[in-house]
Amino acid sequence: MQRYLLLAWSIGGLAAGIACLLAGAPQAAGMVWMASALPVAAHVAIGLARALIGGRLGVDAVALFAILGAVALGEAATAAVIGMMVAGGEALEAWAEGRARAALTELVARAPRRAARILDAGVEEIDVAAIRPGDLLLVRPGETLPADGRLEDAGAVLDDSALTGEALPVEARNGDRLRSGSVNAGAAFRLRAEHDAAASTYAAIIRLTREAAEVRAPLVRLADRWAVGFILLTAALAAGAWLISGDPTRALSVLVVATPCPLILAAPVALIAGIGRAARRGIVVKGGGALERLARVRTVLFDKTGTLTPGHPRLAAIDAAPDPGRDGALRLAATLAQGSTHPVAGALVAAAAARGIVPPAPESVAETAGGGLTGTVEGRVLMLGSEGFLQAAGIVPQDGFGITAQVAAAAGSVAWLAVDGRAAAAFVMADGVRRDAPRAVRRLRAIGVERILLLTGDRAAAAAPIGRALRLDAVLASQAPADKIEAVRREAARAPTAMVGDGVNDAPALAAADVGIAMGAMGTAAAAEAGDVVLLVDRVDRVPEAIAIAIRSRRIALRAIMLGMGLSGGAMVAAAGGWITPLAGALLQEAIDVLAILYALTALRPDGEEPGDEHLPAEAGLVERQEEHAGLRDLAEALRRTAEEIEATPDGLAGLAALEARLRTELLPHHQAEERLLFPEAARRLGGQDPMAPLVRMHAEMEQLAERVAVLLPLATEPDTWPSAMLEIRRSLFALEALLRVHLAVEEEMLAGLSGEKVSPAGPALVPGRAG
């Protein structure tokens, strides 16, 4: 406010002096102009004294000498214009920083101050500081969630745009964890607080935001050092112009046009603007220093679980003996798995539910830590766990299961099922690559990152497929936290390095890297505290976006400095030569300041290299089509299973007919809906020349194979034609299964950036199994 009052005083004094001059009172005009300039000079002198006490020589000294010199030489109008120029520069600084910090201050301004707590006697209004874990809170429409907690009602609709930059509303279901800072975009709901407000997600974001605004960047400190040289250069040029010409007004002209504002303001404004731009995209950067280091990154190391992969195992394939068969084995395993909270057990239960298998209640279940489960189901003794768990009980997997074990070494891990003392099934588990991960890696290379590595504590067999799928430069597996720190330091010795992770075990490596990037949306508080950059949205493609924003912000900061100082240097030479008067110089200096600061503010805007909000409208049906993909993966599994189980006689024609019906009722309508609504809208967002053409071609190939199966079925009804028809049907089913899996993976990767939904893993890996 003080800056704006000083500007108003300067403008008022300059206008009053002009009025006096027009009224024929030049002496009064001069006095008014001096009266308007001297308070500004006093303000600058106080700021200069404070800077000297702090051990810095501020470039405002040039402005102070210019005002005092103008007063001494009787250039009252020039003194008034310089005063207005200085006051205007400070007001412009306040306005520019306000614009640059808008996204950051908006987060702080939206922080809730009151909350509604539900008690037996009714609802009471409390300060958010009074919230305690376990409190039941009422969140009304339009209110900001005051604390982290779990949803107690059936559903809720949330607006996460302030936290993540995602424009689309998010739907939550009963029991889901909700983060403070989200806005209730639907009906009122109840929230069971898990933390007090001070320990909530939003409080941490505000704390990081305030830290980001206070840290001085190296580029800003560099500008301070340049400022000292600039003052000496200005003094030398002004003194030289006076000595050579004998005219002190030339020295005054040099002082007037010596504009320090690009040095003082341009760098911090551009860097703060970059931080604000990042915040709008769900990326919290802890200060200009972190932004500068991020701009220099040339090596990126990724953790695997929870970063490049979702961190949730899924069932990729089943290999089972004829008795109990694949579905029977999954039913027995899911029954036993109900008694465990292990992620693999949860994946088996989820896979059974997806196939419509309802497991009965187990008769007894016992869990061995680090081994597996034992129990009795329908009178049969079951064991479910690792190979070593079965071997400890004297059970050796059958010979045929060795193939599955070898495949699992490349695709994931195996959970074994033994029934009545004999190995009966092997469940291949895998943790798939995030849909946005391949695009993130390609984007990193496009913006100049030279080396990308995977750094994980998992075994090499589980990590190698991830590195191969993403085309990473190296995979470092079986890394303990100390090993990760050493690996980060080795890479940092070669080039500026960023480490991306989400877990407690990643925190030391994040701290050791030049820039630590924490997946803060689903990661741990330890990782978020250790990181220099925190991603508030659970998307790994925000990593290259953060680096791109940092590169552009630093480039704009340097260009703004060079633009302002280049124009100022030219004006100083012209002033020393007598071509610019003090009054004209004051006006020119103000124009240079405005130009440099406005250019620095362009860091707020996205450029063509940064991804924008390209979410498809709801009418395009992207969410519905993605939900159908789970059924299509089940269809792909059915295609493979049916092809493997085709008998030498036409006894299985009924099953083939049912499968062909699924192709007509599930696959073809899905294709038609995509081509009618989804693909045209996606093509407009993606740009380029017919980007959806490969997917449409795959549709045509799959439909041709489905038609081939439909034509072969009637021809296979006779025993004489069955042998040849069976071979063709088997080939068609295998080809259709392979093409369908590839199509789903490619489509999900292409469309991952067009959805506001949380990124989920791609489908199961293409893993062969043995006939049941």
Automatic annotation (TrEMBL):
Q: What is its main location?
A: membrane
Domain P-type ATPase A stretches: 111-209
Which EC class, in a word?
translocase
| UniProt keyword Metal-binding present | yes
Q: What is its EC number?
A: 7.2.2.12
Superkingdom, according to UniProt?
Bacteria
Q: Which reaction does it catalyse?
A: Zn(2+)(in) + ATP + H2O = Zn(2+)(out) + ADP + phosphate + H(+)
- Membrane spanning residue stretches: 61-87, 226-245, 251-273
- What InterPro entries does this protein's entry cite? ATPase_P-typ_cyto_dom_N, ATPase_P-typ_P_site, ATPase_P-typ_TM_dom_sf, ATPase_P-typ_transduc_dom_A_sf, ATPase_P-type_domA, Cation_Transport_ATPase_IB, HAD-like_sf, HAD_sf
As for family, the record states: Belongs to the cation transport ATPase (P-type) (TC 3.A.3) family. Type IB subfamily.
- Please state what the protein is called: P-type Zn(2+) transporter
